[in-house]
Amino acid sequence: MPTDFSKALPEEERGEVVLFKGYELDLEKAKADFGDYVEEVDSLVKKAEVLKIENEDQNQLAVAMGTSAKKLTKQIEARRNEIIKLPDNYVKGIRNFCKMFTEKLISIEMTLKDKITSYRIIQEQKRREAELKAQKETEKLQTKLDKDAAKKGIEPPQILAPILPKGAPVVRTESGSASGRKHWTWILEDQDKVSREYLTLDEKKVNDFVRGGGRNLPGIKIFEKETTSFRVA
User: Fold this and answer.
1) CA 148, 154, 158, 159 torsion-angle sign
2) Is there a domain that residue 167 lies in?
3) C-alpha to C-alpha distance for 205 and 212, rounded to whole angstroms
4) Contact present, 136 and 161 (Cβ < 8 Å)
5) C-alpha gyration radius of the chain
6) Nearest 5°: CA angle at 224, between 218 and 228?
7) Distance in angstroms (rounded) separating the CA atoms of residues 128 and 135
8) What span, in angstroms and rounded, lies between the C-alpha atoms of 8 and 153?
9) Is this model's pTM higher than 0.70 or not?
């Protein structure tokens, strides 16, 4: 019996999912909804490209065109938001619903990876200890053989210490496999000792400093820059 996943969503989102079942995603129809803006936008583009501001009348015209462009932008964005609201809410609802599973599964992955890594480290440590023990035993036996051979005046046989096999690099199961790998990484210990070439300027802090009235900052030039902004009436 199929599961009704919509019941796992908040009540306010369930209705949106039901409504979305009858929603037609027709891109061409959506484009047609913006048809009235095409000619108006193209006209503004051409006028803005050729406009020269050499007197107050032309300056007034530039302001009128700029604010018209800003107004059109708001109208188009409002229309866009109206069109995409329903499917957007549907996508958000499904994404949030799936997070209930994926966040737990990602946590499981991380937990098991840490446990597998710890196991591999312990096994490798045991392997090295066993290898060192075998090497010492081999050296001890070799010393005894050397002494016996010296007494008899013969060449002693050479014994090689056994090299124990490492753990399997890849562990395979029916559902997949896991492999260990090593890589270089780092952690910060003392920022004051880090070379400047590896440091990044915190632009947000500088912007906050300037907005807060700060005007003097060693190594940084703070100056006024004039710009123009449009406000739609």
Assistant:
1) negative
2) no
3) 10
4) no
5) 36
6) 150
7) 10
8) 87
9) no
Long-range contact set of residues 225-228: C-beta below 8 Å, sequence gap at least 24: 228/66
**Residue 38 included in any domain:** yes
| pLDDT means over runs of 10, the chain (233 residues) | 45 47 72 90 94 95 95 94 88 92 95 91 89 90 90 88 76 88 89 92 96 95 92 87
pLDDT at 38: 92
Query: Looking up tokens 């979305």, which residue turns up?
Result: 20
The answer to whether position 119 is within a domain reads yes
Place of tokens 């599961």: 3
Name the amino acid, one letter, at 90: Y
State residue 171 phi and psi, 5-degree precision: -105, 120
Q: Is residue 191 helix, strand or coil?
A: helix
Q: Considering its fold, how many domains does the chain have in total?
A: 1
Structural domain includes residue 191: no
Would you call 30 helix, strand, or coil by DSSP?
Answer: helix
Pair of tokens at residue 67: 């604010």
Please calculate the CA angle 117-122-125 and round it to the nearest 5 degrees: 125
Distance of alpha carbon 65 from alpha carbon 137, whole angstroms: 91
- How many Å apart are CA 175 and CA 153, to the nearest integer? 62
User: pLDDT digit string (tens) for 191-213?
Assistant: 999 999 999 999 999 999 999 99
Six token digits for residue 73: 């932008």
| Domain coverage including residue 88 | 5-133
The one-letter code for the residue type at 109 is E
Q: Coil, strand or helix: which one is 62?
A: helix
